[in-house]
């Protein structure tokens, strides 16, 4: 199959590379000439384990190319995927569809034969029909169908998620479009991974419902953690006991500083807005959004309390600033709330992150950067574990404590235990939900 992938952001690039690894002929398109030049040179603009090597393999095989020329990429394509950004719109919290509709209009005039125009971006219910109207208006003679094919990629594990998915969701209206999509995903069908065939609206809703549910699960365990602290329970034991119930499961039951990233904050806000527009308030989702912000503020208070009620003049070492491990993504990361608050309270904040510095330097003005955890902790009054990178899971705690002026640890990911910290020489330790 010949595929045009419009957009080389996280979703577009990972999807394009993986489709080419299926054996398809994929052209990835972007307006950013600098980004295309870097991709042609073999440089991956995002950090995703395994992506650079897989991209190089498929470029060398001749199945994957990059261009700024959208008409050339769309010409003769069996499917054209829209994988552009849908950021939160200022003012109302809805998904901004400016880039989606602009891409649809450009695709319309570039179509030369039958193609399925597939929305890969996360979009509100009704967007695919709006894409179809945009194409028909721009090119009444166009021969096409639209399809909704939302992505379910976890940053840091995106390639495995694409190649071994829990499910693939495809919304289509006509058999002709279904046949094209079935051919595209044939490698997964042959390995018996579930493919959910449904209508356009249901496919759009599945994405929002899934992300909102997972965000609610994270927020629920964070509320339980706060209660555990008051009643003397251990949230790790509680989460383990809950997770063994097959109806609940153990994933996303890890107490911490709240969710962040490119999906959950944006998608929960968009779902809440969709509910308001249709007079069906998403009250659980609205509460999840509110509580998640409160959790971040509660983490700030925890650090301040650990430092005796004030961080003014204190040196705080923050380990990890990306929203999760194995990514360089800083979008909506808890660090963007916590670090500025500490600096605003008079703290001297020193941060380190395996991949976060590239974006973090601009996003965290006033913070000083260190090469590793031990340099960050030198002379510090408190060390904060904010993102659970593997290298922060296996620290030499005795060495870390010796480097600090006042060995205190705010373990916001529950990587260690109070007993481990005390044995290593920490005079104070605070986890979450313990």
Question: If you had to describe this structure to a student in words, what would you say it looks like?
Answer:
The protein is 46% helix and 14% strand. It has 434 residues and is an alpha/beta fold. It has two domains: 2-198, Rossmann fold, CATH 3.40.50; 234-434, NAD(P)-binding Rossmann-like Domain (Rossmann fold, 3-Layer(aba) Sandwich). It has a six-stranded parallel sheet, with helices on both faces. The chain has a six-stranded parallel sheet with strand order 11-10-9-12-13-14, sandwiched between helices. The chain starts with a strand and ends with a strand. The relative contact order is 0.09. The mean pLDDT is 96.
How would you briefly describe this protein structure?
The chain has 434 residues and is of the alpha/beta class.
Could you say which structural class the secondary elements and strand pairing correspond to?
Answer: alpha/beta
Q: For the report, how would you describe the main beta sheet?
A: 6 strands, parallel
Radius of gyration: 23 Å
The share of residues in helices is 40-55%
- Per DSSP, the total helix count is 19
Distance between the termini: 54 Å
Name the CATH architecture of the largest domain: 3-Layer(aba) Sandwich
Mean pLDDT: 96
Number of strands: 14
Cross-sheet strand order for the largest sheet: 3-2-1-4-5-6
Which geometry do the CA atoms define? elongated
What is the CATH class designation of the largest domain?
Answer: Alpha Beta
* Total number of distinct structural domains: 2
Instruction: Please name the fourth-level CATH homologous superfamily of the largest domain.
Output: NAD(P)-binding Rossmann-like Domain
Low-confidence stretches: none
Question: Percent of residues in beta strands?
Answer: 5-15%
At the third CATH level, what is the topology name of the largest domain? Rossmann fold
